[in-house]
Amino acid sequence: MAVNTFESLRGQVLGVLEPLPVYRNQDVNENFAAVPIFKNKLVKIGRNSRECDIIFPHPSISSIHCMFWAIRFDDDSVPMHYVKDCSLNGISINGLLLKRGQTCLLEDEDVIAIPNACEYRFQAKIKMLTSDLIEQLGFQVNVENWRLTSKVVGSGTFGHVLVANEKAEPTRHQPRSYAVKIIKMKPNRLDKEAKILLRLDHPNVIKVHMTFSDDRNHLYIFQDLITGGDLFSYLAKTDCLSPIPETEALVIIFQILHALKYLHSQGVVHRDLKLDNILLCTPEPCTRIVLADFGIAKDLSTKHSRMHTVVGTPEYCAPEVGFKADRAAYKEFSRAATMEQHGYDAKCDLWSLGVIAHIMLTGISPFYGDGSEASIICNAKIGNLDMSTKQWTKVSEHAKSFVRSLLETNVTKRLDSSRSFQHPWIAKHKGHLEKIYQKKIIPDSEPRQSFEETNWKRKLPKSVKLSPTSVMNKKARKLELS
Ligand SMILES: Nc1ncnc2c1ncn2[C@@H]1O[C@H](COP(=O)(O)OP(=O)(O)OP(=O)(O)O)[C@@H](O)[C@H]1O
């Protein structure tokens, strides 16, 4: 895309790359204009004129040399700007080299040098909007070998997720940034999320490096910073969720299946799989995805074989979990309600994957009805899927059958995480998917840094408010009754 066509793109400019006059007079520099960065739009720089937005034909420049993007958790948060080095010859920020394949969080006024092409000064267009959370909530800035920043990656029911930097000896390379989820805890109780995550190690499961608790009952969970935003934002490019091509959906589903097969083999059930909890490393097709938010995950490896607590997000929740359409029923609700039906098992995650697959292929949530919680719960219980609508016309029969096999109300007939790999939709493309997985996904993940266990249990919010659900409500709420 020529530079000036950026002007025609609608949307708010979140950042700008201002060229510095380093290479202005050289032949290599054909593109000497400011580069705007919009939400949900990658800016690729390199030699390949078909793939890149800014083209530098110099032989030392890689086909795609580097790319820039901005992630904004919601309209109240400050955008996070990233650059990823995809080159052979490298790029640097403020004189420090990026490792090959490294993604780096940009700061206002950073200078990014692309040798033999251009140097840019990055300017953030939206700066700190909110007051400093660290001070407001009394978080500890220095935690062992880490230093918290005031950058907020996201917030949820249980806590806030900030950017943290590891304190390391200066080297010639850019240091990595991490995410730290901070949760208010009840003292001396065990935190399940941290405990579960510390023992897991899989390319498609969020990697936790260390946990720490301060004297104000805050638990800090230091983990990889996943830089491409969540799947909800990726699909919500306009005012509604847009479907993605079947091949792109397949690559995501294949990775979720790998994660679920691993989790279930470890006795862990996620119980809150949804678009918001699937994070992307880069906001583009064929990127590595990571399952996050294990706040209500269950570890069945010790004693229980089935679960009875009604928990999750109704829009994604399997009918056997036991959400009730009638709010009044919750007043009398107890574990016995799902005990009647012998509880539920790990296949609840496969139902949620069915909802996610349905949305990715059509842009529509399968049981949404009039959008009320009652209607979603009733529709899911009946389990009728209408695949005669126009949204399904371009979707293959194999893909439809896969979605049906997961959104199966009869749990015994529903596919589990191992058998899902044998479904014709996956099996037919398995060779290709495996190749992408081995070549692109696994090499992109890095090993865990350190390991430590804690003994804290989170403090649940006093009241969990139930409001009518909406597919556009990013922070779709969870209901925990037990
Ligand atoms: N490691 C990470 N890297 C990047 N972003 C993250 C990371 N962890 C969480 N986030 C962002 O922060 C948001 C909130 O995190 P998380 O879902 O873990 O919190 P929560 O309090 O458990 O949320 P919920 O209300 O869904 O239970 C996520 O939706 C995601 O956008």
From TrEMBL:
Occurrences of domain Protein kinase (ranges): 147-426
What keywords tag this UniProt record?
ATP-binding, Kinase, Nucleotide-binding, Serine/threonine-protein kinase, Transferase
Which domain of life does this protein belong to?
Answer: Eukaryota
Entry-linked InterPro entries: FHA_dom, Kinase-like_dom_sf, Prot_kinase_dom, Protein_kinase_ATP_BS, Ser/Thr_kinase_AS, SMAD_FHA_dom_sf
Segments carrying the region annotation (Disordered) are: 463-482
Name any one Pfam family assigned in the record: Pkinase
Task: Identify a single GO molecular function assigned to this protein.
Answer: protein serine/threonine kinase activity
SUPFAM superfamilies assigned: Protein kinase-like (PK-like), SMAD/FHA domain
Provide the binding site for ATP: 181
Tell me which residues make up the FHA domain: 43-98
Record's keyword annotation contains Kinase: yes
Q: Which family does it belong to?
A: Belongs to the protein kinase superfamily. CAMK Ser/Thr protein kinase family. CHEK2 subfamily.
Record-given protein name: KLTH0D01386p
Source organism:
Lachancea thermotolerans (strain ATCC 56472 / CBS 6340 / NRRL Y-8284)
